[in-house]
Amino acid sequence: MRCKVLAEDAFRVVAALDGAVCPTEAFLLHGESTTAAQRLGLYSMLERVAELGLSEVPSSWFHEANKEHGIYEFIKGPLRLFFFKGRNGDIAVCTTGVLKKGQKVDKSAVQRAVGYKKAYEAALTNKTYQVINDEDQ
């Protein structure tokens, strides 16, 4: 499994790659014009998480979306960016983002996040995990 660095400071925030595509990056960079400010806000949140760590940012920024599998979501307006807590320097591993349309958590986004988490853990165990930066591509 490969992940791309989204923000790095005292901690590292990465996003899972699906082949050559980074679903998180696509979500943050492309979308409806009505959510441009929220997408920029999410990216700023990731930078602060990389700087301070999850324990030092406001608890209103994220919450647990699925307790059984340890899946969380960053919250910015109607946008949700799913992640799980990583290891070996990865404070958060982002998986996918959605525009929230109702009161319930997007179950398909949670299932994608669970799949990425399983692949991440297997890659760490098998020593096949790779982190890339923009300059590595």
Compact summary:
This protein has 137 residues and is α/β, with parallel strands linked by helices.
Which class do the helix and strand fractions yield? alpha/beta
Computed CA radius of gyration, to the nearest angstrom: 14 Å
Instruction: Indicate the percent of residues in helices.
Output: 25-40%
Percent range for β-strand residues = 25-35%
Structure description:
This protein has 137 residues and is an alpha/beta fold. The chain has one domain. The chain has three helices and seven strands, in the order ββααββββαβ. It has a seven-stranded mixed sheet. The model has no long low-confidence stretch (mean pLDDT 93).
List the helices and strands and how they pair.
Blueprint: E1 2-8, E2 12-16, H1 23-29, H2 36-52, E3 62-66, E4 71-76, E5 79-84, E6 90-99, H3 107-126, E7 130-132
Parallel strand pairs: 1-7, 2-6
Antiparallel strand pairs: 1-2, 3-4, 4-5, 5-6
Short descriptors:
globular
